[in-house]
Amino acid sequence: MNDLTPKRIVEELDRYIVGQADAKRSVAIAIRNRWRRQQLSEELRKEVSPKNILMIGPTGVGKTEIARRLAKLTGAPFIKIEATKYTEVGYYGRDVESMIRELVENAIGLVRERLREEVQPEARRRTDERLLDKLVPSPHTIDTGVGVEDAAERHERTREKMRAMLVAAELEERRIEMTIESKPKAMMVPGMGGPGGGMDFDMQGMLEKMLPRQVRRREVSVAEARELIFEQECEKLIDEEKVNSEAVQLAEESGVIFLDEIDKVVASDGGKGADVSRQGVQRDLLPIVEGTTVQTRYGYVSTDHILFVAAGAFHQARPSDLMPELQGRFPIRVELQDLTQADFVRILQEPRGSLTAQYVALMETEGVRVDFTEDAIETLAEYAYSVNQSTQNIGARRLATIMERLLEQLSFEAPDMRGGSASIDSAYVRERLEAVAQDEDLSRYIL
C-alpha cells in the first residue's frame, strides 16, 4: 500500500479506463488518505474519518469500472450494491445492514486466501505423508519369523521408494480408498432471517454445526486423493478465529462499498407511495454511512472508517434532493463527463482487454486471424456516438452492442474458416451497420 501513491493509482486506472481524470484523482486521494490515516497515532487515527465520494454521471461512462478496478488494485474488501435492492426496516426486502455483512464475507474470503497461501507448504507436506500412509500401510507384526525392527526397517525403505515415485508423479493413476467428509449446508427457510429472507447473524452457522457431517468412502486415483487431502489439510491448518478477527478488522479499516443507483432512492415531489419507502431507505443508510456498529455472524463491525462511494445518473433528480444529512456524508462530489467520439476511439484501442483485442483473441481460438484497421475503429466510434445521440445514451456499453452486430456473421462462420483471416475496414463496418444505424426505429431495438 505504501507504493500506491495517488499518481500511481491514476496511472493504473488509465490502463483500463479512458478519460474521467477528475474522478480518478478523487478516488486516488481517498485511497491514499486511508494509508496516511494508518500512519497516525491511535488517538488521532480515531478522529480521521474517510471522505466519502458521490459520483454523478450518465450510465456507461466508467463509474462502476473505476470502483471495481480500484478494489482489485488495493486488494481491499469491496462490494458493489444497488440502492434500489434495499427497503426500509419493517418492509419485506433486504435491510441496509446486510451490505455490511456482505462486506465482511468478502473480507473473510480475502483473509482466508492469504492464510491459505501461507499454510500451503505445510499442507503439501502433510498431504504427501497421508498419501504414503495410504500407499504403504504400517506393518503389522504377525508370526512370520520377521522381527519387529526388521519389519519397521523394511517398511521405511519401501516408504522412501514410494515417496520418490510419488514425487516423480509415477503413481497418479493408482487407486486408493478415501474417506470423504462433506460439510452440511443449512437450507434457507423463508422467513427465518427476518424480512430480508436471508439468515442473519450466526443462525446459518448454528444450524450447520447441529447437522451431522456426511461421511462416505470411495475409491479415487492418487491425483484426485491429493486434491482432496490437500483441501482437508489446509482447512485444518487455517485458524478460523484468526480469519474472523482479521477479516472484521480489514473490513472496518479498508472496506469499500460502492453504492450504485443512489439517485433511485430520491423521492419525487409527490412524496407518496413508493417515495415513502425511498425516504426510509435514505434514513436507514444515514447511520451506516455516518458510523454505527452492525452485528454479523463474525462479531460486531464498526462502519466508522468504511469508505462509501455512491454513484447515480441523477437524470430525474438532483443530488440536492437527497436528505441533507445524507448529502453531508458525501463531501467529495465528482461529475463524470459524457463520452465523446474521440473517447470511443480510445476505448476501442487503448485499455487492456479492449473490445477489439477480445474479439481478435476469440477468433484466434477458431484459427482465424482478425485485423481492425484504423479507419474501421474511427467508423465504429462514429456509429456508437451517433446512435447514443439519436436514441438512449448508454455510454461505452453501446460499443459492445455494435461490435456484436458487426461480427455476428464472422462469429457464425469462423469454425469453417480455420487458417483464414479477415480484415475489418471502414467499408466492412458501413456495410454491416449502415442500414440499421440510419433507421432510428431499428437502431433503437438492435443497436
Which features would summarize this protein structure in a list?
447 residues; alpha/beta; Rossmann fold; Helicase, Ruva Protein, domain 3; five-stranded parallel β-sheet; two-stranded antiparallel ribbon; 18 helices; 11 strands; 52% helix; 13% strand
Q: If you had to describe this structure to a student in words, what would you say it looks like?
A:
The longest helix is centred in the N-terminal third of the chain and has 38 residues, at 98-135. This protein has helices at residues 6-14, 21-38, 42-45, 63-74, 98-135, 148-167, 203-210, 222-237, 240-254, 274-290, 324-327, 341-349, 355-364, 374-390, 397-406, 408-413, 426-438, 440-446, and strands at residues 53-56, 78-82, 175-182, 214-221, 256-260, 293-296, 299-302, 307-312, 332-335, 369-372, 421-424. The protein is built from 18 helices and eleven strands. Helix 2 (21-38) runs parallel beside helix 4 (63-74). The protein is globular. The chain folds into three domains: 6-106 and 254-335, P-loop containing nucleotide triphosphate hydrolases (Rossmann fold), CATH 3.40.50.300; 116-246, no CATH class; 341-446, Orthogonal Bundle (Helicase, Ruva Protein, domain 3). The strands form four sheets. Strands 2-5-8-1-9 form a five-stranded parallel beta sheet, sandwiched between helices. A two-stranded antiparallel sheet has the order 3-4. The two termini are 42 Å apart. It has 447 residues and is of the alpha/beta class.
